[in-house]
Structure formats: C-alpha cells, structure tokens
Amino acid sequence: MQLQRFCSVLLLSTLTFSLAKAQKPVKNTGSWPVIEKQMKPWTRWWWMGNAVDEQNLNLVLKKYADAGLGGVEITPIYGAKGFEKQYLQFLSPEWMNILHYTVNKANTLGLGVDMNTGTGWPFGGPQIKPENAATKLITQQYTLKAGEKLTEAIKVKEAKQDFAQLQALTAYGTNGEVIDLSSKVQADGSLNWSPNSGSWDIYAAFAGKTRQMVKRAAPGGEGFTLDHLDKSAVDVYLKRFSDAFGGKPQGVRSFFNDSYEVYGATWTPTLFQEFKKNRGYDLATHIKELTGKDSTNANIARLKSDYRETMDELLLHNFTQNWTNWAHQLKSETKNQSHGSPGNLLDLYGAVDIPETETFGSSYFPIPGLRRDAGDIRNVDPDPMMCKFASSAAHTGGKKLASSETFTWLTEHFKTSFSQCKPEAEQLFLAGINHIFYHGTTNSPTNAPWPGWLFYASVEMNPNNSLWPQAQGLNNYIARCQSILQSGKPDNELLIYWPIYDVWNKAKGLDMALKVHDVDEWLHPTAFYKLSKALSKSGYSFDFASDRLLKQSTVNKALISTNAAAAPYQVLIVPQCELLSPETLDQMINLANNGAKVIFQALPKDVPGLNNLEARRAQLKATLAKLIFTDGANGIKQFKVGAGLILLADDVQKALSLVAINRETLTDSGLQFIRRKTTTGKYYYLVNHTAKDIDTELSLNDEGQVLIMDPQSSNVGLAAIRDKKVRVQLKSGESLFLKVDQNGTTKTPWVYLNKAANSINLNQPWNLHFTEGGPELPADQQLAKLVSWTTLNDPKLQAFSGTGVYTSSFNLSSKTAREYILNLNQVDESARVWINGQEVGILWSIPFQARVGKYLKAGHNTIKIEVVNLMANRIRDMDIKKIQWRNYHEINFVNINYKDFDASSWNVMPSGLIGPVSITAFN
Known about the structure:
Largest sheet: 8 strands, parallel, barrel
Strand content: 25-35%
C-alpha cells in the first residue's frame, strides 16, 4: 500500500511538472515560430463506454502525435455493444489509473490532455440527486370568489414531481390587489384563506425538476442533469471529482464544458431570493405576468428582462466562476462553450480561461471546384460574427487562446474532404479563433473491425479514416497558422458594445438560451449585428464589450484598457439600441471624460427593467441632457468632455474617419484579414475566399519590411513594395501571412509568378498501384488517361477506400524559368507528391498546386503521386451488402438529419487523381 501511494504521488508530481513545462513561453527562431503542442490542432476524443486500455491507448496516441495533433480532450460517452466487459466506471480507481497513464503517455509524445468534467453532456451524473437536479418553474392557477374556500390541496399536479417545492402563492384581485398567501398554506397543502369580496386568481409557483438526464452518458456518468444556477448543487457535483482526484492536480491542462443544453431549466430554488436582492423588488408578486401568454406587454418584457438578468448572474457566479476556481485549485484551466446559455455570453465566455465557440454545419464558399452537396447543408450556416463572442472575451480579457469545436456536421458522415475543412477553419481564424479542436476522434481498439468505433455526429478524424495517411497536410497548415495567431496580441482598434438588454427585453417565453442555432432570432435582426458586419466588410477590426466589461475598463493615453494583459482599443462604439442602463451610460461618458473616443450610432431611448422605473428614466434623461452636441461635418454631432470626445453619427464609418481611424482598404480586393501585433511589427493573415484569383498591390495601415509567409508550403520571402503598396498573389482558396517588421533583415525575395511561359501536360501513361485500404486491394492498373479509379474495369474499385500510388515520367527540354508550378487539377481527395525521388509535399486542398522548380531537371523526370480517397464508397458497399458495422448503446448511428444512417443509396464518389496534370513555367 505504501509503495502504491508513493508511486501515485510520484506520478502526480511528474504530471504537474509536465503541465508546467507545457506552459513555458513560446520561442521564435527564423520566420516561423517553433511549433509547440498548443499551436497544433487538438481533437475531442470520445471514449466509448470508457472501454480503454493501456495497450490500445499507447498505439493510438502515437498515431495522433505522428499525424500532427497537439492534444486530446477526453469525453467519455456511451459504449459499443458486445464490449461491456471492457467498460470502466467513470472516476473509479481503475478509470483514474487509465487517466494517469494517458496523461503521462501523452506528455512523453508531446501531446496535451484536456478532460470533460463529466461524461456526455450537459454536466450531471449519479451524484446529482433530485434536490440538486436542473429545476424548472411550475405554476398552477386557482380561482376563488368571495366567501369560498379552496377544496383542493396546493400541491403540484404534474406527474413525477415528488421533489417539487412550493415557493410562492400569490392572489390577484379584480381591482389590482396583490396578496402573498404563502403563510396561509398548511403543512398538508390546504389553504387557510377565503376572500371577503370579489373574484381572485391565485397562482402557485413550484420549483419542479426538468428530469433531464445526462445525454450520451458513459458508464458511471448516468444521472440527472445538474442545476447550474445553484452553488450548493455545483459544489456537490464537483466534490465527486475532487474526491476521485484526492484533491490533487491530475496533469490535465484544461477542464472542458460543452455548450449549455440544459433544456427547460427555467428556475432554481433561490431565484426569488436572489431576484429581490439584485433587482430590488419581489418577483413572487409578479407570477401572473411572468407566466402569462401576453407577448406584447411592455412591462412584462421589462419583468422578464429582470428575470433573465438574474438567471445570468446565477449562472455566472454559481457555476462558471465557481467551476473555474475549482479547476485553478487543481492547477488546471477551464475551457467553456458558453453559447446556448441563458446569460450574457460575453461575460460567461470571459469568466473562463479558454473561451470556446463551435461551428455546426457547412458554410458556402464560392471557391471553384469546392464540393458542397445539398445533403450537407444545415438550417443555419456557421456565422463568424457569432464566433467573435468567444474571441472577443479572450481578447478583452487578455487571454492567449480562443478555441472552437470545429467541423461538427461539416458534411454527411465519411464524405468530408480536407478541401472542405480548410476554408471553414480559415473562417474561424478570421473571427479571432486560434485554437482548433476537431469534432472529433473516437478512440477505437485495434480488434474492432473497420471502420472501427465511431461517434454519431463527427467528422471522422481518426486513423481508420482512409484520408489519415495525409492528415499531416491539414494539421501542419493549422499549426503554422496558429503558431502566428497565438503570438503577440490581437490588433483590433474598435470596441463595440453589445446591447444585451435589447435582447432580453422580450415578453415571450421565460429563459432565453442564446444558441448557435437561433442566431436568426436573437442576433441577425439587430442593429449591433448589421453594424458589425458592415464594419468588418469595410476593413475595420473590433471586439465586443459587455456592460460588466465596460464597468471595469479604464483609459490610458486616450486608449481604452479592458484588462492589464489585453491590447487597448482606440474607440468605443455604441450601436443603435433601445435600452441602456444609466450606470453603463455614465461609465461610457466617464471613459470619454478620461480621454477616450466614444461614438454613438444613436442615443438610447430608455432604461431596461422594471424596478424604480421612473426614477431611473429620469436619471437617464438627465444624463443625456448633459450631452450638448454641436453640429459638425457630414452630419456628425460632437460633444467634447474632459480629455475625450463623444460623437453622434448614424454613419459610424464617417465618424471613424473624423477621429482618424483608418480602415484596411485591402478588403476592397475581396480579401479578408485579421491582424496580430508584436513588439517589432504586425502580422496580417490574408485569405481569398472569393471565386477569383487575386494578383494585386495592397495598401497596409502599417509600414516596414514585409515578408510573405505561406502557411501551406512554409515558404517565406521578401515582398515587393511599390509606392508603399505590397504585391500579393492569392489563388481562390489560398491564404498567406504578411509579416510587417520594423527591424526586418531578410534579403531573400519572394518569387512572384509573373508571366506563364510554356506548359507541359503530363500525358504519358500512368501506372496505378494500390498500397493500403479495403475491403480488398485492387489489382494494378495502367492508365492511358487519368480518370476516377471507380470507372476502371475492376469491380473492386467502386467499393475501395484507401491509397493508390500513380507513377509516370515526363521530359523537360530545358530548365531556364524562374519557377515551375505543378497543377494536379482534380484530386479526390488528397495527394502526396514526389519528383525525381524528392518529396514535394502533401497537396491536400484546392487548388492542388505546388512550386516544384527545385525538384526538376532538364531531360527525363519521374513523378510519383500517392492519392487517398474518402471512406464513402467502402461504407456504401457495406450498407449495400448489409454488413453490420454500427452497433452502439443509446443513440446508435444517425445521418446528418438525425435519421437512421444508410449509405446504400449513395452514388459512387469519384476517387483518385483525375487531373489533368501539368507543369507550367513562369519567368
């Protein structure tokens, strides 16, 4: 026993040391930062049934590391049938031993480990008894007339609500009387009260239970969902983990919480008490309005705004901050998906160490050749502006990382190409996200037949995927991008206030869960969203701010500081909004008085909420009356206050010009960008998501030596500058970094592709040899012309998913051009290229081109191209043959529309090198 205890202490010490080592400062050598594990893409790692063992973990972790992943996020879920004997109970001693093994092994391989503080989602489990479970408001109505007695007991009628607690009983008279009858209810539920006159409606409010169970729970994680709004319930929940951990750090970098999907949790037992303390009046006297069906009454909207603000406070303090404090005691961080929560998303994201957004579904990009099947389109496209809520919280809070659950339902199962992943990831980068998490990778034992164990809602980023041999292409690209996007600090000049009270001020419904899937309701119609979209398109950079953030902000040398570790902002913008608290307005004016520039698109019209309404209205009106504007140019009104300036302008961009805030005109070309600033200059990340190739000269707002850095090939060279304009060439679907450096010393110029000379079509016969995959390896083929291998005269090829190697040769009469471009044209789906025995690299994404001049020679040349295709054709064949490959507990396996999955009716997808292949000389 003593030896075992000594080993446990030694292991935990090692894990703690490894965690500390992982958090060392990033080093830079040369042009690209040294790639560390935090810069690489990570993946959510599904542990099905907790059926994990050291031997298989050892194998798969090495495969993950070799493929270029930086870390794993353990999320245990339901298991595969037939493997029940291998299941481990969540947080049992056996499970803890395997966690320690995983962390230790991962660290030796250069991988990090995050862990879900639970199984499946949302938080809950066997430690959550009904009294601590997610709670909902249940109301019942009774009617009494003068002299009548209530004959029934005041008890909840809804079935399975044995733990429901009566919280209030309020009577409403016909003449507007309101009486609290709570003290008149006897122990048996009888009401000891009778009205003297009139007719009375009586409303009983109960704290009932949603009875929601943990979704997709793993063995040992089953149970009720937690009441996130109640601190004592959260403490009970976390105690199970503290006990399993022995109160000691586990080497887990970060604890994770998925999006808030606690359905119907409209209440918590302390809500009346907290409401009265924070809002200043008794919500129990307003049960009738709170639960009524009137969706047009302005006062009911105000009441519900107050209710939603109270929910926000409870979730922020009792869960988010509480959970984060707990993690910090274990020397770990928190990573939270705040979207879907009934609260101010900016504050909830900001209360954790790593704010995390998510993308769900696929976006439309007009990149030629980029496949987007009709069956892959969800009801709501991913919205980059939604992702900026998480990145804004990171930026304004001085946090290094903003992460995203990425590629969730990007396409139908088994049909996702790397080309489809690339622009979706780039869209996240442009929104300020710099820490990609794949959704996801299912842990699968070696004895599970192909395709192995799979999660029902993910892009299959695992070693059984036929694309896996070339996953390094995508992973290395993301790592290079993130190595820069995690360096320095964000460079956003504008801070835009998010008018949360306009969102909350709705008379319909109760809680307001601000979901990714409902942005058409709560985000898209707002002036805030429309202004943000317009500013982004015009070339401005910004983050979002909440009332709480502004309250703690200060001004230093005319710049707005939101946090000592955050980059400051030059201007605060207040979009058109109906409601603004007098306290927030006072703080905005105070910031201006201390030297800040504040732009109002329009002045607020009213205050939010119901408490002390007329007095607060008078306060707002008096403050607005002090803003004595003078008319300026272009219809812009000005008010100078203290050391700063307040502008009032419907056209915000004209106001920004007035205070010398310049947009980046590069967006006029169709390019999108994001900037990071360093001690010596800035990085520009440029992306071409237009349908056209771009060859242009760009004006940048910063000057210095400009390096072009290609994150796909890792090539670097000095940019050409003429009249202070930088020349860039970006094909549709490509990206690059511009490093603007005040102390740059690089001499090697970037080689531009100026004028195409002659092209060589590689039309010699091709030999095609299949090296790995299944269900069977097809025979070798000799091709006079490149076509999809599924059309060749071998029935095995229509079902084949795997790797085919093409070899051929060509003649180059002379090698005199400055550069040569290899163009593979159509590739289904990724290609690794060798020329004359030298590896060119992985061409994994549209436009499937590479610079190959240094590999060529005059005369005879050889070329080898290894191509991997999708899993789709093999899965189709298995379903046609009715081969059983999916057999899971709980939800079995569904398609993108959450119907039973069946690929038997799919068309065969094109596969292989389809070309035509050419090499073009550029002088």
